Amino acid sequence: MSAITSTLEAYQQQLRSNRLGLWLFFISEAFLFGGLLAARFYLWGNSRPDLDQALGLTITAVLLISSFFMNRAETAIAHDDRKTFLESLLVTAILGVIFLIGVVGFEWSGHIKPWHGAYGAVLYGMTGMHALHVLSGIIFILIVWNNGRKGHYSGERHWGVEACAIYWHYVDLVWVFFYPALYLIGTVVH
Amino acid sequence: MISITQASLVLTGLSILVGILMLGGSLAFFGIIVRREYPLDIPEREIEEPAMDPALLAKRTSAYRLGAIILAGLAVLTAVEYVVGVAWSSVVILLILGLFKAGLIVQYFMHVTRVWSEERH
């Protein structure tokens, strides 16, 4: 067995362990976000505060589009298309920033404040925890982008990109459940 | 004499403007200054896309297309979700739609099956 084959096999075994570790991390995170969702249904019941529907739909669309570009970046590096990879990563990060501006800059400047009882507590708890993950995801993407422009990844070896992509999609996945829970389920309480 | 509301609106507008300028400035900084100070580690010619086998090119195009199809599916489901939420607010339908969206993301974007089926990218 040549040294190259041996190294490649070791990398592939490591890759499998890395993936398993990352998914175990997601399962532990699911308990955190699940707890927040449970708090929402326990405290709000079949009601919800009067939030800006247009803003909710817009930031949801922005996050979904960012997931598309993240997927595009991962696909690109897997096929050694470095230019598309770097461009898509940057677009993903910019869309992530737009999402953050939408939540922190606009939603949080609305009429509901954290001290406004159960509505404020749940709204800020859920969006705040999610925004923190979006922020860490953006930092993760920028690190990967910087490594990518230095030529650190290839079609055969890009675990860093794959991990970053899966993490970003996980953030999107959480919002898939948070969006209806915050904006759509229940009758509006003024 | 301007009211407090008007003053708040002006301040909010100014904050947004400053935010946009800072974002643009940061992008310009990274795009122009950092790139000039720290050039790419590998020569430009290596970054250029190599001539590809038509079969590999077709595979890559197909992979990009799949991503676009999944995005379209997610967009349609989100639009339906919005209409259902605003018009009926049915928890059951919203939950089912959410599970469909989550399934698409987990299967096609997060590649969950790789955890137990593949040892390659």
How far apart the termini of chain B lie comes to: 65 Å
Distance between the termini of chain A: 71 Å
**Topology pattern of chain B, helix = H, strand = E:** HHHHH
**Shape estimate of chain A:** elongated
In short:
The complex is a heterodimer of chains A (190) and B (121). Chain A is mainly alpha-helical. Chain A has helices at residues 3-44, 53-78, 82-106, 117-149, 159-184; strands at 47-49, 187-189.
Give a written overview of the molecule.
The complex is a heterodimer of chains A (190) and B (121). By secondary structure, chain A is mainly α. Chain A has helices spanning 3-44, 53-78, 82-106, 117-149, 159-184, and strands at residues 47-49, 187-189. Chain A has a single domain (25-189), classed as Up-down Bundle (Four Helix Bundle (Hemerythrin (Met), subunit A)), CATH 1.20.120.80. Chain A has five helices and two strands; from the N terminus they run αβααααβ. In chain A, strands 1-2 form a two-stranded parallel ribbon. The relative contact order of chain A is 0.16. Chain B has 121 residues and is mainly α. Chain B is built from five helices and no strands. Chain B is extended, with a radius of gyration of 24 Å. Chains A and B meet through helix 1, helix 2, helix 3 and helix 5 of A and helix 1, helix 3 and helix 4 of B.
Topology:
The complex is a heterodimer of chains A (about 190) and B (about 120).
Chain A: H1 3-44, E1 47-49, H2 53-78, H3 82-106, H4 117-149, H5 159-184, E2 187-189
Parallel strand pairs in A: 1-2
Helix pairs in contact in A: 1-4, 1-5, 2-3, 2-5, 3-4, 4-5
Chain B: H1 4-37, H2 44-47, H3 54-87, H4 91-109, H5 114-117
Question: What descriptors fit this protein?
Answer:
heterodimer, A: 190 residues, mainly alpha, Four Helix Bundle (Hemerythrin (Met), subunit A), 5 helices, 2 strands, B: mainly alpha, 2 domains
